[in-house]
C-alpha cells in the first residue's frame, strides 16, 4: 500500500462508499465506476482533456479497489483512517516535548505530571512516529507529546 501523503486520498469516497459498506457493496460501486470511466467505453467525440480526466478517474477507482478489496490492505487503510480521525478530533490541552518527561526504567515508559495530580504515561513504542496524544490516567485532560531531534 502507498505511504500516506500530505493529503491522503479517501479511497472510500473514490468508490462512493464508506467504511461501513460490505465488500460486495464496494465491489458493485467499483464495477459501476469502472464501466463509466474505462478508456474503451468512452464516447468517440470526447475531448482529449475530458478523456484524460476519465483516464485519471479510472486509475484512481482501480487503485481504490486494489486497496479496499484486499483484506490486509483494507485493514491497514482503515487503521490509518481511524488514527487520523482520532488525531484530528481529539482535544489537546497542551503540547509537551519528550525531553520534558521523566523516564521510568522499571516500567519502560515516560511520565509527566498532570495538574490534577495524575500522570500522562507513554511507552517508547507509542512514540515510533515521533508524536502521540496521551490522556491523563486520572482526569480527562490530554497532551500531545512530540519527539524533538
Write the layout of secondary structure elements.
Layout: H1 11-15, H2 23-37, H3 48-69, H4 71-89, E1 94-97, E2 102-104, E3 109-113, E4 119-123, E5 131-135, E6 142-146
Parallel strand pairs: 1-6
Antiparallel strand pairs: 2-3, 3-4, 5-6
Helix pairs in contact: 2-3, 3-4
Task: Describe the 3D structure.
- The protein has helices at residues 11-15, 23-37, 48-69, 71-89; strands spanning 94-97, 102-104, 109-113, 119-123, 131-135, 142-146.
- The protein contains 4 helices and 6 strands.
- The strands form 2 sheets. It has a 3-stranded mixed beta sheet with strand order 1-6-5, with no helix packed on it. Strands 2-3-4 form a 3-stranded antiparallel beta sheet, with no helix packed on it.
- The chain is an alpha+beta fold and 149 residues long.
- Helix 2 runs antiparallel to helix 3 and helix 3 (48-69) packs across helix 4.
Kindly list the characteristics that best describe this protein.
149 residues, alpha+beta, 3-stranded mixed beta sheet, 3-stranded antiparallel beta sheet, 41% helix, disordered N terminus
Amino acid at each position: 500500500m502507498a505511504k500516506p501523503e500530505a493529503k491522503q486520498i479517501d479511497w472510500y469516497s473514490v468508490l462512493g462508499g464508506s467504511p461501513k459498506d460490505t465488500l460486495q457493496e464496494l465491489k458493485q460501486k467499483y464495477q459501476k465506476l469502472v464501466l463509466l470511466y474505462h478508456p474503451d467505453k468512452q464516447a468517440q467525440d470526447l475531448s482529449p482533456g475530458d478523456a484524460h480526466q476519465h483516464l485519471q478517474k479510472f486509475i484512481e477507482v482501480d487503485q481504490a479497489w486494489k486497496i479496499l478489496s484486499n483484506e490486509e490492505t483494507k485493514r491497514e487503510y482503515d487503521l490509518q483512517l481511524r488514527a487520523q480521525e482520532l488525531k484530528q478530533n481529539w482535544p489537546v490541552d497542551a503540547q509537551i516535548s519528550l525531553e520534558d518527561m521523566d523516564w521510568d526504567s522499571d516500567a519502560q515508559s515516560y511520565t509527566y505530571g498532570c495538574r490534577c495530580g495524575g500522570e500522562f504515561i507513554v511507552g517508547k513504542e507509542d512514540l515510533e512516529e515521533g508524536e502521540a496524544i496521551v490522556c491523563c490516567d486520572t482526569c480527562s485532560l490530554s497532551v500531545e507529546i512530540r519527539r524533538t531531534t
